[in-house]
Amino acid sequence: MDLATTAVSSPSAYSPSKDTVRNAHISGRAAYDRLVAEAEADHEGYWARLAREFITWKTPFTQVLDDSNAPFFKWFADGTLNASYNCLDRNIERGLGQKTALIFEADDGAVTQVTYAELLERTCRTANALRSLGVQKGDRVVIYMSMSVDGVVAMQACARIGAIHSVVFGGFSSQALRDRIADTGAVAVLTADQQVRGGKHLPLKAVVDDALALGGCDSVRHVLVTKRTGAEVPFNAPRDLWMADLLAVQPTTCEPEWVSAEHPLFLLYTSGSTGKPKGVQHSTGGYLLHAALTCKWTFDLKPEDVFWCTADIGWVTGHTYIAYGPLALGATEVVFEGVPTYPDAGRFWKMIQDHLVTVFYTAPTAIRSLIKAAESTPTAHPRNYDLSSLRILGSVGEPINPAAWEWYHQHIGGGRCPIVDTFWQTETGGHMITPLPGAHDLVPGSCSLPFPGIAADVVDEAGNPVPWGQGGILVVKKPWPAMIRNVWGDPERYKSSYYPQDFQGRYYLAGDGAIRDAVTGNFTITGRIDDVLNVSGHRMGTMEIESALVSCTTLVAEAAVVGRPDDTTGEAICAFVVLKGALPAGKEAAAVAGELRSWIAREIGPIAKPKDIRFAENLPKTRSGKIMRRLLRSVAKGETSTQDTSTLENPAILEQLGQAY
Ligand code: WT7
């Protein structure tokens, strides 16, 4: 493990304004401290109180935490509820039927507003359509759709009937989609004819066809297709059905399926350090509680807010902070189909202006690329837009470097909006370490302090606490309601990945390193301590990319993948490849590198394409035959290494590896 061991100095802090503090749900540091103390004094009592406040239960729970089969924790297990009821019907019962739930902006700028009453009706019809095809509680449904009202409706509809959804990001390839469909054993796939991004029409249904043709997906009985562009797509009756035909005959109401709090709400695949992506299984009750609670406290959401989370529903951020959290609070939110740079790099700023967005949540990668764009194209600069509606900004997915933080604060937030740098993971369900806007001083580069009730800490490799100011391993010492429940179909992997024996199975292991400020105790995340990369906020396993490369058996003999720092994407993928044929150079090497990139795009998706590909006759290995990854990381960074290379069989390869294509 590479752990940062140097103390982080405390750069200047920004205190929230008096108004921010006064009006915030969690008003002032003392209010935060009281919540932390309440949770410390009675962890279960604290979470039970909030679960009663934030969730409407069909049957109230009497049990809070069940740790009898740790680390397979259960929360509120004898309570029953329905997530879609909590996100839709409940708001209508509270008089919000005519309130706008979703402001959908299409790639071409067309805007559709959907009220809570309309969203409920669409959800009910879709839920009825699924039921009419025999989809039942506990069945898995794969959703392969882009950002759309229909995508959100599809998720809510599954929740309504107790089907377990698994959304697959629309940028994943047919191979990656097949693997996920096969692993879930889905009975249905929901998709659209095409998706539209940045003015381009891209396939969805055709990718589903390819995925199913790859085999191993016999569980799939139906593919339900929504029309987005109206493009002609191959249709394979009776398996394929047009969603519109099904919906036309469905009743507009649908009795929710009341499920146990522990009933899986969804599976979402994410990369680990070894093997295939794992299906992270989330619960209904604990998950929904944290989705609603963190939306309220971290974003300080109020009824009049317009919230915009720019994530895709294919990632966990799009689950918690688009499909569930804001709706559970009866909020109004923006859903955006397109990309930040189309028709130009002012798109985000224009949308904030047009929709009077008050709370904006995006990724550092987007900010960094928009900074570059604003500097090179004056018309894309945020100064051309009225961003005065904004009051809170959020960041997620990767560390935000202080320079990007300052720009975001000054140019987007006008120097007045607190930035919440939210640290969390697919597995954690929602925010774990984050400032609360009216409670914390903000320090660029630090995600500040644990959300009340989250027992995050930094320990050494034996699990002993390390003093503030010293780097270590980030752990969570107590279970929390929204935590991952299992790795779908692989409980052993759940245990070994998240409750490893290194800590006698006592602590949840996040997989990140962290350091606490010596004075304030503020957390700074120092990056993954395993072989997981974070490229543009997307998580990718190095092994996954390696196995995709070596599966190109006509070309590749051996491959190793490491990350290297990148100004825009945070980390960039760097692949070291030994070819079966002779070592190529110049144009020929560039051509082979191009072929390998296309191969990866087909095997996993374009997001996994290596930025650098380097060829050599061999990879540097230790005497015992282990690839010297640390050495490769230095080579990838362009560092002249001080590491011992005396064990290298063929030192000349270091020179070969210096050239990136
Ligand atoms: C990994 C989780 C969180 C939802 C989207 C990504 C990194 C995430 C931060 C942050 C520093 C961060 C960690 C984490 N990460 N947020 N605010 N500061 N690092 O979810 O794909 O499960 O990735 O993203 O390395 O482990 P994910």
TrEMBL record:
Q: Which PANTHER family match?
A: ACETYL-COENZYME A SYNTHETASE, ACETYL-COENZYME A SYNTHETASE 1
Q: Which organism does this record belong to? A: Variovorax robiniae
Instruction: Report the protein name in the record.
Output: Acetate--CoA ligase
Q: What GO annotations for molecular function exist for this entry?
A: acetate-CoA ligase activity
User: Which segments constitute the Acetyl-coenzyme A synthetase N-terminal domain?
Assistant: 32-87
What gene is this protein a product of? acs
Family in the record: Belongs to the ATP-dependent AMP-binding enzyme family.
- PROSITE patterns, A to Z: AMP_BINDING
- What NCBIfam families does this protein map onto? Ac_CoA_lig_AcsA, PRK00174.1
Keyword tags: Acetylation, ATP-binding, Ligase, Nucleotide-binding
Gene3D superfamilies for this protein: 3.30.300.30, N-terminal domain of ligase-like
Q: Name one Pfam family in it.
A: AMP-binding
Q: Does the keyword Acetylation apply?
A: yes
Enzyme Commission numbers on file: 6.2.1.1
Task: Describe the location of the AMP-binding enzyme C-terminal domain by residue ranges.
Answer: 544-626
In what residue span(s) does the AMP-dependent synthetase/ligase domain sit? 97-480
Q: Does the keyword Disulfide bond apply?
A: no
EC class: ligase
